[in-house]
Amino acid sequence: MNDLKVKMELPGTIRVLFPLLLVVFLFAFCGCMSKSTVTYFPQQKTSDKKSQAEQNEQVTAALRQYFASWQGTRYSHGGLSRRGVDCSGLTLLTYKELFGKNLPRTVQEQAEEGTKISKAALQAGDLVFFKTGVFQRHVGIYLKEDLFFHASPTKGVMISSLNNAYWQKKFWQAQRLKSGTDSGKSSTAINQQTVAADY
Predict the structure, then answer these.
(1) Could you write out the three-class secondary structure of the chain?
(2) Could you say which of 5, 40, 107, 171 has the lowest number of CB atoms within 10 Å?
(3) Residue 15: which domain range?
């Protein structure tokens, strides 16, 4: 009798678990669909201006998608997660997760990683640095049209403009890292962005 009871209850158990299994399957399938490979190419020189522009747009789009997954995350000194992150932590994670590149941990170390470039030469993916105090330094990642994203100590992860009076005054230097990737895999979601108000 007990064996018969188990056999009779089994279809009911499957009926209860089926929606849950369906949700898990769909979530995993959609997650796989969103994965993409992004290559950081700002230093690559090409005579084809159209090709260079396309590469720049690809990097910009990837950075905006990545920013969307961090937007609004609170600032936390020493933080390296979506519970809280600091400026150099955000650049470190962006390069590692999006471009497969390893950066050192601190702003000062990151400022020594690449080649100095002028503001006029900025491309998507370049690092922008600021002197925000006597001993304080800040870093963000350039997008396009004078916009960069960063972990603001007062407003968390946001997009700001280099043309803002505060950032114009605090601008220190821009750096371009060597091109090339180690893995370059990312699973960022496409979301609409809003340019947050600045300092």
Answers:
(1) CHHHHHHHHHHHHHHHHHHHHHHHHHHHHHHHHCCEECCCCCCCCCCCHHHHHHHHHHHHHHHHHHHHHHCCCCECCCCEECCEECHHHHHHHHHHHHHCCCCCCCHHHHCCCCEEECHHHCCCCCEEEEECCCCCEEEEEECCCCEEEEEECCCEEEEEECCCHHHHHHEEEEEECCCCCCCCEECCCCCCCCCCCCC
(2) 5
(3) 1-33
pLDDT band at 178 (very low <50, low <70, confident <90, very high): confident
Judge whether 194 lies within some domain. no
Instruction: Indicate if 138 belongs to the active site.
Output: yes
Q: Could you tell me if 125 and 164 lie in one domain?
A: yes
- Of 30, 32, 77, 150, which one is the catalytic site residue? 150
List the catalytic residue out of 30, 32, 77, 138: 138
- pTM beyond cutoff 0.85: no
The answer, yes or no, to whether residue 180 has pLDDT greater than 60, is no
Give the tens place of pLDDT for each residue, 65-81: 999 999 999 999 999 99
The total domain count for the chain is: 2
Same domain, 29 and 98: no
